């Protein structure tokens, strides 16, 4: 996998990347571009820039099909903190995506396991996900796959870790008791099945997760590390998120920054046996 470190706004970098991927794919009604989407604070700027590209007629979502990563269990769709509300507010209401192309997990479904099975089936029927975007949890979770999640897991209901509930309380008036304790999430296996991955990590709160990523091996204790098993995975990060990288990759990054201080970004390769 590639670790791309930039001082640019992560949302602008990622949105430009998504635009280029969709336009190069040249999607049609018969061959849409299937895009996996995240929520959360890290990707607010990503969606703002995608909206801007659409308004400037640089990007169309007419032939894009989307699948979101996750949803809280128990929140009504119109709750301001549901991921359904988040996606319509930050993207879907502002672009030309057909409503039938939008796929969101239903955290109020009467049978949550059936809901998850149907979601996996819908992904398969769409031909699989071309590009899956994601954020990084402070404890290394991806989507709502908390530490300890099976590396071959598929879409399923999960219990949220206390650290995740605490981190997400900022969206619920800083009250952990308002945060749902369960969610539906695509699995790690679902994510790895995508043909390409682009994850984003910003700020010092994500530095510990990236530190574990930069160490040898892949472990369920830090789901983020599975990105090293994907042949086309990129983690986009700012310098603050890279402050605790293992010694060898940190030295390589510092050398790259000294050699090209004005580069738009610097790239490190991290492998499963990263040293």
What would you note in describing this structure?
It is a single chain. Helix content is 30%, strand content 17%. The protein is α/β, with parallel strands linked by helices and 275 residues long. It has one domain (2-269): Rossmann fold (3-Layer(aba) Sandwich). Helix 7 links the parallel strand 9 (197-201) and strand 10. The protein is built from eight helices and eleven strands. The two termini are 14 Å apart.
Strand order across the largest sheet: 5-3-2-6-9-10-1-11
Distance between the termini: 14 Å
CATH topology: Rossmann fold
Which range does the strand content fall in? 15-25%
Summarize model confidence as the mean pLDDT.
96
CATH class: Alpha Beta
Rg estimate, integer Å: 18 Å
Major β-sheet annotation: 8 strands, mixed
Helix content: 25-40%
Total helices: the number is: 8
Overall strand count:
11
The structural class is alpha/beta
Topology readout:
Layout: E1 2-5, H1 10-25, E2 33-37, H2 44-55, E3 64-68, E4 70-72, H3 83-90, E5 102-103, H4 112-125, E6 131-135, E7 156-159, H5 162-168, E8 182-185, H6 188-192, E9 197-201, H7 207-213, E10 233-237, H8 247-259, E11 266-269
Parallel strand pairs: 1-10, 2-3, 2-6, 3-5, 6-9, 9-10
Antiparallel strand pairs: 1-11, 4-8, 7-8
Helix pairs in contact: 1-2
State the main characteristics:
single chain, 275 residues, alpha/beta, eight-stranded mixed sheet, three-stranded antiparallel sheet, 11 strands
Quick gist of this model?
Helix content is 30%, strand content 17%. It has 275 residues and is of the alpha/beta class.
